[in-house]
Amino acid sequence: MYNGGKILIGIIVFLLFAAFPFYNNIGKVSAKPEPKLNTPVIQQLAEKKCVEPKDFMKAEHMQMLNDWRDSAIREGKRTYINSEGKPFYISLQNTCMNCHSNKKEFCDKCHTYAAVKPYCWTCHIEPKEKRS
Amino acid sequence: MLEKALVGTKKYWTWVFFLFAVIGVGAVAYMQQFNYGLGLTGLSRDVSWGLYIGQFTFLVGVAASAVMLVIPYYLHDFKKFGKIVILGEFLAVSAVTMCILFIFVDMGQPMRIMNVMLHPTPNSVMFWDSAVLGGYLMLNIIIGWATLHADKKGVSPAPWVKPLIYLSIPWAVSIHTVTAFLYAGLPGRHFWLSAVMAARFLASAFAGGPALLIILALIVRKFTKFDPGREPIQAIGKIVTYAMIANVFLLLLEVFTAVYSNIPGHMHPFKYLYLGLEGHGKLVPLMWTSSILAIVSLILLIFPALRKNENTLALACIALFISLWIDKGFGLVIGGFVPNPFERVMEYWPTLPETLITIGVWAIGFLVLTVLYKVAVSVREETEGVELEH
Amino acid sequence: MSMDRRDFLKLAGLSTVGMGAGWVLSRPGDILEASQFLQTKELLNAKQWAMVVDIRKFKTVEDYKKVIDACHKIHNVPDLGNPKDEVKWIWSDSFDHAFPGQESEYMPEEMKHKQFVLLCNHCENPPCVRVCPTKATFKRKDGITMQDLHRCIGCRYCMAACPFGARSFNYRDPRPFVKEPNAEYPTRMIGVVEKCTFCEERLAKGLMPACVEASNGALIFGDITDTNSEVRKVLADNYTIRRKSELGTRPSVYYILDIPGGDGNA
User: Fold this and answer.
1) Which is higher by pLDDT, B243 or C18?
2) CA-closest candidate to residue B47, choices C86, C96, C192
3) C-chain residue closest to A61, CA distance
4) pLDDT class for B156, splitting at 50, 70, 90?
5) pLDDT at position C34
6) pLDDT mean over B336-356
7) What residue of C is the nearest CA neighbor of B334?
8) Would residue A35 count as lying in a domain?
9) How far is CA B165 from CA A39, B213, B296, C38, C199, in A?
10) Closest CA to B332 of B295, B286, B292, B278
11) Residue C183: inside a domain, yes or no?
């Protein structure tokens, strides 16, 4: 093999670089994110339910928001009928955030943990939050 | 073959690093624009396209002009273009690269560029423009690379290359026609609403592109051992001459229609560009520079004695290139927006960051061109004296 | 088994495609199946919304201001303070600029300088929709020329195509320039094109557009395909003009002119 030594060194340097996030985080514990649901609006709900079951929302809320967006803007359909037949007005700012008025304790908790940066809030106005 | 671009003289590396430095400055300016928004440019609500889209339009022409070498060589068996046709194809690759970059830097939301493919919209000319440009880039990379590789080995190119070459001819015409349609189909933009727009685009392309190629061929001859030859350069000179005459003719047709019909909407952009309108005339000196250079280049080109002298030919090509650059890379776009839909004159002038980004993109284009030409020239130097097989 | 480089690459390519296809096929089905999207019950419905501007009823500066402010406030339209970066949905301009080519030097001075309320025409045949490369701007079933700002790539082709100067581009971040944001409506971000939406979000709730509501009867709004609608009645009773109708875009905004010397209702 020509330049075998150099190639080996190159591979090792690359592996060290690529594996940086792993060995850098060894032994560090990140607390499991627990989004808070204790907003005044939610507390007053008779039945503490989101538009769809919790597990579904956890896994699919991003896809659902996309569907809501397309339905409201592109088709002008602003009512969502959930799996129980209940209607909801489609609006991120006025429906979702009406209940989840604690963006920092709700949205940001998991998004920060998962290092995702949805850019909803460059346009949509986040609810005013009291420092808790 | 790319490894040939990694060995070179001191001069070569100085040039390459100079280009990198210019690109670096452009990149810094672009990051600023990316963060602040296009407000960093001179663009406004009234003149919403400017230098970037002008450069894009001009460079589509440069890219299309490769066909002026391909047609004589492959369709008419004009052997003398054999060694030089690769320079045209690689110039096209570099030009299309710049086109794509100019579109990119002009976008308000560049991260969403894939939306054009994710939501294909056949009724938008811009959709077709992106499709034909991408196709043309691929065609020229494949054709240029395959023929050059065959030359290097002293064999004729693979049989599948020929059909691609024939395909590239109408394709070249299509890229500039579609680019003209980008402008020529808009209601209420009188300056652009012209049936000869595509024809004029092609004429100016077939003058400007080959003129640049002559300049490049002379540079290649000066700095390398590869001589494209006197005769091919003279032949391209004739192409440039006819195309430039056609281009000026078509421009004068536009002027006649606008001025003789006396329709204000059609006259105003010409008035703004060449005389100034309502006391605004930022582009007047530029447009007259373009006109004078066009006349100078035509004089130098039309008289055979002057055209046959390579020094005056080079001078003619430089004058012509600058003339067309001003006319198409600047005046054409701005003239469509001034006066605005309210018959108000709102002027445009590029800002410093906008200019730096523009120069940066040109530097990327020149870098691509330098690398490709280095490869081509190195192969040509190796096969000096060997008859080409294709 | 020996394999040359070419075969290896072919196989590697094939297996990549296979993996991709497997991933697509193995994805869980659409769990949203049971759920549906409905049009809001209260939704005001139409085939083509249209507006008539009764310019006779615009008399004082205040008449224009209240209409413009009503729109710009609820839609978080920024005030950038310079004409270069300006964003506007509804504004006013004088006759000779609103209807260039229609003015004459001998017409009543009052008319020549009369301010006209200008906004997106929601054309029946909109060039902006024709040119958009991503369908970010599109025609809705109710005739509104709408834009999906999540999809806009900011190429500004629509601005070149619009003969009415109705479109504004966000040359910079508008958020800091919205003085009192309406928390029920979004702002926009850098690099997208925006314009009037005929208040589709209000129509969905059964409300008239904000400008119409604030205009005190000077703006009339309705479905132009409905022969019994108020807009149709107004159009039947008054002489109206549209901006640049010769371009064939079929604007949906009509203007009742003030005819000085006439009784105003002729």
Assistant:
1) B243
2) C86
3) C32
4) confident
5) 44
6) 96
7) C160
8) yes
9) 67, 19, 35, 54, 54
10) B286
11) yes
A77:C186 CB<8 A? no
Residue C220's φ and ψ, nearest 5 degrees, are -115, 135
The ipTM of this complex is 0.91
Using CB atoms, pick whichever of A73, A78, A125 lies closest to residue C181.
A125
**pLDDT of B284 over the 70 cut:** yes
* pLDDT at residue A70 in the model: 92
Contacts of B346 in chain C (CB under 8 A): 83
Q: Which of C27, C33, C35 to mutate to test binding with chain A, by most A CBs within 10 Å of its CB?
A: C35
Contact list in C for residue A78 (CB cut-off 8 A) is 39-40, 43, 204
**Looking at the domain assignment, is residue A127 inside a domain?**
no
All structural domains of chain B with their residue ranges:
2-382
Taking contacts as CB-CB distances below 8 angstroms, the residues of chain A near C146 are 73-74
Q: Which of A51-60, B121-130, B278-287 has the lowest mean pLDDT?
A: A51-60
Q: Which of B233, B220, B250, B232 is nearest to B312 (CA)?
A: B233
* Domain assignment of residue C57, yes or no: yes
Residue A132, in any domain of the structure: no
Residue B161 to residue A95: CA distance in whole angstroms: 60
Q: Quick one: average pLDDT of A53-61?
A: 90
Does B187 contact chain C (CB < 8 Å)? yes
Q: Is the pLDDT of residue C9 over 90?
A: no
What CATH number has the domain bearing residue C123? Answer: 3.30.70.20
Contact C183 A128 (CB under 8 A): yes
Beta strands C253-256 and C49-54: pairing type?
parallel
Helix%, strand%, coil% for chain B, nearest 5: 75, 0, 25
Report pLDDT digits (tens) over A24-37: 888 877 778 888 88
Give kind and range of the element (H or E) at residue C118: strand C115-119
Instruction: List the subunits that have 3+ CB pairs under 8 angstroms with B.
Output: C
Look at residue C101 and tell me if it is in a domain: yes
DSSP output for B22-84:
HHHHHHHHHHHHHHH-GGGSS--SSS---HHHHHHHHHHHHHHTTHHHHIIIIIS--GGGTTT
Take residue B212 and report the two structure tokens written for it.
Answer: 């640049």
Are C131 and B37 within 8 A, CB to CB? no
Among the four given CATH numbers 3.10.290.10, 1.20.1630.10, 3.40.50.10070, 3.40.50.150, the one describing domain B2-382: 1.20.1630.10
Tell me if A88 is assigned to some domain.
yes
Token readout for B189 is 């933009």
For C149, the domain range is: 49-256
Lowest mean pLDDT among B237-251, C2-16, C49-63: C2-16
Q: Token pair of B197, please?
A: 């727009």
CA distance B58 to B64: 10
B239-267: per-residue pLDDT in tens? 999 999 999 999 999 999 999 999 999 99
Residue C221 lies in a domain: yes
